[in-house]
Amino acid sequence: MHTPIIDTHESSAPEPSAPGRWYGHLYVQVLIAIAAGVTLGHFFPATGEALKPLGDAFIKLVKMVIAPVIFLTIVTGIASMRDLRSVGRVAGKAFGYFFFFSTLALIVGLIVANVVRPGHGLNIDPATLDASKVATYSEKAHDTSITGFLMEMIPNTFLSSLTQGNILQVLVVAILFGIALAMLGDRGARPLSLLEDVSLVFFKLVSIVMKAAPIGAFGAMAFTIGKYGVGSLANLVGLVATFYVTSALFVVVVLGLVARFAGFSIFSLISYLKAELLLVLGTSSSESALPSLMEKMERAGCPKSIVGLVVPTGYSFNLDGTNIYMTLAALFIAQACNVELTLGQQVLLLGVAMLSSKGAAGVTGAGFITLAATLSIVPSVPVAGMALILGVDRFMSECRSLTNFIGNAVATVVVSRWEGKLDTERFRAVLANREPATARPALV
């Protein structure tokens, strides 16, 4: 069955409103907004802090459309595949990729923390730390368990999965619905056609919402700088710098090698997604660019069925930046409090982090909550030590989100290529900024 693909003129990542004019590009507008937000927050902190609702409102607008976009993309993708064995094969390859690179990210964070030792010499007495500052995060982490996580994946009702804002619940319902629709055979053609038409409406809605991206980035960045101030980085500059450099090396070296073996340049992919990356940087949330990522990966030649499975799943199970942060931050706290962890304790920390990191959504603060969950199970490292990094967590959240976002984009291309479904000619043309003006045929 032919699956209509969204025309490139209806992209959720708006093209320049006035070709040839630099200020017409979304990424330029977001970059200017970020710079303006930093300036305002630095010189007028009270005003910057008061602009928090602008960033919050934009993220709420995006989250408003995330559930239906994921649902429609997955359902139409799976129903169009017809061969349900291929759905399981794609899911298996995706989870294999996620597990390997998520674990690798945890190991990288652990190694860097042992080599650089960013917390060494701080000599913090855990008894002097104000544990009440992280009490909220600890309480949320305490409620997290494997059983609880699995039960949380199942929504109370079919419709509640689309209203609760839980990506995993949307994923479960969409996969089941898509499989059921595929099993109907020819009788499912009419509802499938209807859902494909509805998906066009929602992607157009996304393109409308994305026009407000510069305003959201401006408000979010003004708030971050106004509330926390660049000066708050001074005492922990070693940790922040170590995390940023480690994440950058992971993207350039590890993901760069993966991209090279898959036949493309990581820098070309980053350039293609520059507007979304700047939006993630401005809002400190990879979730704000999720709908755009799905549309742009499909437009670049990845089939809808694979995009629909890999991207939403990756937002919960393929969080490279969050994983690097977890082991690096945990060892930083231990070093700062003069707690020497044995190799066995570090391996235990790694194992716990592997479990607690699964299911962390790509939203602001999730990494901090996941870190609390990890430390609460490893008693050697004081949970109260998280108060040391609370002031700079917002700045590290931006790097976590960027790394997570790039990791999921790479995963989508790699799985598409493994399946032999990547439109290589179109993919190379789009990354080289030579995108055809006409819509491409479906590859399902």
TrEMBL record:
GO terms for molecular function: fumarate transmembrane transporter activity; malate:proton symporter activity; succinate transmembrane transporter activity. Belongs to the dicarboxylate/amino acid:cation symporter (DAACS) (TC 2.A.23) family. InterPro entries: C4_dicarb_transport (IPR023954), Na-dicarboxylate_symporter (IPR001991), Na-dicarboxylate_symporter_CS (IPR018107), Na:dicarbo_symporter_sf (IPR036458). Signal peptide: none annotated. It comes from Novosphingobium lindaniclasticum LE124. The chain crosses the membrane at residues 26-44, 64-82, 94-116, 167-184, 205-225, 237-259, 324-348, 368-392. It holds the Pfam family SDF. GO terms for biological process: L-aspartate transmembrane transport. The gene is dctA. It is found in: Cell inner membrane; Cell membrane. This is C4-dicarboxylate transport protein. Responsible for the transport of dicarboxylates such as succinate, fumarate, and malate across the membrane. It is a multi-pass membrane protein. Keywords: Cell membrane, Membrane, Symport, Transmembrane, Transmembrane helix, Transport. PANTHER family: AEROBIC C4-DICARBOXYLATE TRANSPORT PROTEIN, PROTON/GLUTAMATE-ASPARTATE SYMPORTER. GO terms for cellular component: plasma membrane. HAMAP family: C4_dicarb_transport.
